[in-house]
Amino acid sequence: MIIDSIDVAEIALTTIGYYRLKGYSFHLIDPSTKKYIKGTNLSDVLRLYYFDSELSGLLFRYSSQIEVALKSRLVNAFQITQDTLVLNNPSVFKDKKTFWKNQSTIASEISRSNDIFIEHNFHNHDGAIPIWAAVEVMSFGTISKTIKNMKTGNNSAFSELIKNYKFKSGDGHDINPSKDMFTSWVQSVSIMRNICAHNSRIYNRSISTRPQLIYSDIISPPPRYSGLYQIILSMKYLRPTENSWTIFITDFKRLLNNYSDVCDIRRLNFPSDWKIHF
Questions:
Q1: Domain segments of the chain: what residues?
Q2: pLDDT score for 236
């Protein structure tokens, strides 16, 4: 590997670390010789790291917007039950065993919270936490599991929720996503948010989630593994507003352009025609 500056290398190794940095150079190693391809420069590896850090920040911010909107819409959807403590009611959930597992997690998240609105209900309402307060302290992962266990059908809370996430069919008709499709979107965005929250690498890696894509976004042949392409499409489907999506994807394209000298879009599992899907 070419190292132009020992000082830069020392700072990188002491502030980023060898193990983390090496993840951005796996594709630059010749598998037959186990050595770096001729011409590999540390400065390029560092630029990939900086690109990945900025990408992580961008994805984290937008997934947070998606989470906040989803929580609000979930609370509004549950109003159909006219039960402020609906999260404690197993009759509105499909699998009772899963319900109690989720209840345990929700109870733990509530008990850990120091938010004033939780304390208010502890002190003034005998610890009964209404849905609009409980949802605020639930993690994205818990929200995902709760939605996955909701009952479906006409006049269900789930049917109310997905009205916010219609998409256009090939002939221009509005279609509600199926429960499996919708929950796969939520789960994939939740996974990406956790990846970003833990500062894990995004570039040149497979991600163990397979969201169901709208027919017009399915690429053929399918990719060898799932990656950022499928997750960003899930973000598009779950976008809080059209304007928020426009801002996000504009920033994403600008980021790619700023690092076009080192970033290979294929390493993010993107097809060549990705722009027409976004």
A1: 6-45, 46-277
A2: 96
